[in-house]
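Reopening this one. Same input as before:
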Amino acid sequence: MHFLALGALIFVLYMCVPRATEPTSDTITVTADMVAALQEQWQQQWQRPPTAQERQWLIDQHIREEVFYREAKALELDRDDTIVRRRLAQKVEFLVADVATLSAPSEEDLRSFFAAHSEQYQGPAKLSFTHIYFNPDERRERIQRDAERTLLALRTEQPPPRRAPARGDRFMLHSDYQQRTQAEIAREFGHAFADRLFASPTGEWLGPLESGYGLHLVRIAERTEPTMPLFTAVHAQVRDDLIAHQRREANEAAYRRLRDRYTIIIDQAPNTPQGALTQGTAR
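Same output, byte for byte:
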């Protein structure tokens, strides 16, 4: 009875002692720093400081968001929510990226990276070509025969003409193209057309090549092989690429350190082919 009475007395005293300094879930405090941050965001977006009315609106919106946030937390709406889950994971990933420190790459590091990844700095091959166009709407079932006959005539002429757009139909774009990359040609004529063109020899008429427009006879006038720029010309780009590469490696290493804290268990689902999932634990 003595201990029970003492416990009751302590409980009463605890309830009577004021605890105004303790924050409660029913208290929303908007500090001066928060208001300053809201005004700074407004300034960055609108390129001017907010008016008194706009400042009050910012504060009201912040309070509104905080009220709904706390109610959502109280209702545990953040649980089992894919969007919230991904957003939290993304924030931790950003924190890991910010914490990862990188040293400035040396000139030797830059040259080594440039040598190891030279293909990504190589200028693309380019072609200059002329073509004769055959319109399927005008020639219909005759288009293949007409193109082949024209190609035979071009090849038998001595010397073969360097260009002959008038032997075909009017084309809505160009008859001659200068120094175009494979990607540029693919955007205009299609990937199959560009692939076959870049695999063809220079200086002779070839075809018929099909595009989205119809059929073409093509003569490649000039081919420019891929060019390697000087290291000094791409120095800044190499530095940015190396820093990005180091950042990715640092982030991946940080993730592996975090992952090693956990035991990973993957249960193989029913009717899943063997080997599709790894079953067991991993450290």
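So the earlier flakiness isn't reproducible anymore. For the record, Confidence is low (pLDDT under 50) at residues 18-24, 276-283.
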